[in-house]
Specification:
The chain has 265 residues and is of the alpha/beta class. The chain contains seven helices and eight strands. Helix content is 26%, strand content 21%. Helix 2 packs across helix 3 (102-112). The radius of gyration is 18 Å and the shape is globular.
């Protein structure tokens, strides 16, 4: 892979960069990106320390870079403006969010010019138990586009019209519903970041809204999951990550070709 450098004048495909995503996206040409998949900071005062959720300190990387709630709308406007600029007319943008800052996400997306195609709910298992409210066990995913008439969408990407579930129902219909029941991944005993998307979610998005050799961007790279899964599905990728330990982890996964890495002894 090419050597990463802050001074690079050109952002190269099939590479990840240790830098602020807004500065990184400014170096991309308008319309250069076919698909954006990203999971931005939540601005919920997330204490993403190594010991969170009973995880071993030697396995969970620290340094989660959050954004203050009062600044979240401006922060979202700033990166979404660049995302809109670099996205192709035929492209799509998938943004994951908790419910806390969903309003800011929707406002910013509308202001910068995105069209909302779907509001997807990702239902996962084992939400955090709370004493005085219901258990949160889902994330929101905004399916956005630049041009609703030109965006790619491959209806038969995963199932055909004749594919049936054991109960006789249409697998394609079930797969096209906007509530996705997909389990989280638990990398027991291996190195990890505090948050990551399951490979199944990323693969589903890739197959429905992109083609082989398309360029996929993740402005908030984290563990490198979007880049790793994109490469597995013959897509090119670009990623930006501001946290040094996360960038190094993502880079190691891509350089070695290993999906999971053992924790340091």
């Amino acid at each position: 892979m090419p050597t990463n450098t802050h001074a690079a004048e050109t952002i190269l495909v099939n590479n990840v960069y240790h830098m602020d995503c807004i500065e990184g996206m400014k170096r991309l040409a308008p319309g250069a990106i076919d698909l954006i998949i990203t999971d931005p900071p939540f601005a919920i005062d997330f204490k993403a320390q190594r010991a969170n959720y009973n995880r071993s300190r030697r396995r969970v990387l620290g340094g989660y870079n959050d954004v203050r709630a009062a600044e979240y709308l401006d922060f979202t406007r700033a990166w979404m403006s660049q995302a809109w600029r670099v996205l192709a007319e035929s492209g799509s943008c998938f943004v994951f969010s908790g419910w806390n800052n969903l309003k800011d996400m929707l406002i910013a997306a509308d202001e910068v010019g995105f069209t909302t195609v779907n509001h997807i709910i990702w239902k996962y298992q084992f939400g955090v138990v709370c004493k005085r409210r219901f258990v949160t066990s889902h994330y929101h995913c905004l399916f956005l586009c630049k041009n609703d008439k030109k965006r790619k969408f491959f209806r038969n990407a995963r199932y055909g019209s004749d594919d049936r579930a054991p109960n006789g129902g249409s697998l394609r219909y079930q797969d096209l519903e906007d509530v996705w029941h997909i389990q989280r991944e638990y990398w027991h005993g291996d190195k990890k970041t505090p948050t990551k998307l399951p490979a199944e979610i990323i693969a589903k998005i890739l197959l429905y809204t992109s083609e082989a050799n398309d360029i996929v961007l993740d402005p908030f790279l984290g563990s490198g999951q979007v880049a790793v899964v994109s490469r597995e599905h013959k897509r090119r990728y670009i990623g930006f990550e501001i946290v040094g330990d996360y960038y190094a982890f993502a880079r190691e996964r891509l350089d070695t070709g290993a999906y999971r890495l053992p924790a340091d002894p």
